[in-house]
Amino acid sequence: MVDSAAEKPLVTITGVTGFIGSLTAKYFLEDGAYRIRGTVRDKNNAIKIEPLKKTLGDALFGQIELVEADLLNSDSISAAITGSTHVVHTASPFVLANPEDPQTLIRPAVEGTKAVLNACKANRIKRLVITSSIAAIRSVLPANWPESNTFDESFFSDPAEDNPNCSTYNRSKTLAEQAAWEFQRAMPEEERFELVSINPALVMGPAFQTNEFASGDVVKEIMT
């Protein structure tokens, strides 16, 4: 007897315990057309795993495969993506204040994205979707602000360190997305996979996260 579930295409979602990652997994699982694998840094970290369970519910949580991976460990990212047909890359550190060391945001964002890209190339995946941000678009120098006040896909934030309009987080998202498009352009056309970048502004909605997370912190600040 053939296991029909095993025949479904495999989607790997990085950062599946995050606010966006957990809900992305929920929508995929509810659709039922895919097998879902999610990356976490520690499968035994209840502070991260329990909110994911609440988001998915017992039935859906029982259907997801969790694997450990770290954005700064390319081998772990490669192992997580092996066998996938599609990848959704939501994992990236997000804090509201500029950290003392900018690389605590920039390195995981950029190197993690590059690790995902290399793994996607090695596995000949069909499509990679990256959760970028409006932060990668609108932090431009005043001279480059569009006269129409409308930003399109041709705009990128200016990640120069002397750009006062570009926070460390904005810089990390800009450099990561630019690296993704440069990687795809450099690939031979016959090996090129589809690349999609989604650039939301503030994402709000129901959340089961019990630890602090940036989108929730924004709502808390509004309320207090």
Strand content: 5-15%
CATH architecture: 3-Layer(aba) Sandwich
Rg is: 18 Å
* Net shape: globular
Main beta sheet: 6 strands, parallel
Order of helices and strands: EHEHEHEHEHEH
State the end-to-end CA separation: 58 Å
Per the CATH scheme, the topology name is Rossmann fold
**Can you tell me the residue ranges where pLDDT is under 50 for at least 5 consecutive residues?**
none
Mean pLDDT, all residues: 92
What is the class in the CATH system? Answer: Alpha Beta
Helix content: 25-40%
Helix count equals 6
Overall description:
This protein has one domain (7-223): NAD(P)-binding Rossmann-like Domain (Rossmann fold), CATH 3.40.50. It is built from six helices and six strands. With 224 residues, it is an alpha/beta fold. β2, α2 (46-61) and β3 (65-68) form a beta-alpha-beta unit. Helix content is 38%, strand content 13%. The protein has helices at 19-31, 46-61, 74-81, 103-122, 168-186, 214-223; strands at 10-14, 35-40, 65-68, 86-89, 127-131, 194-198. α1 runs parallel beside α2.
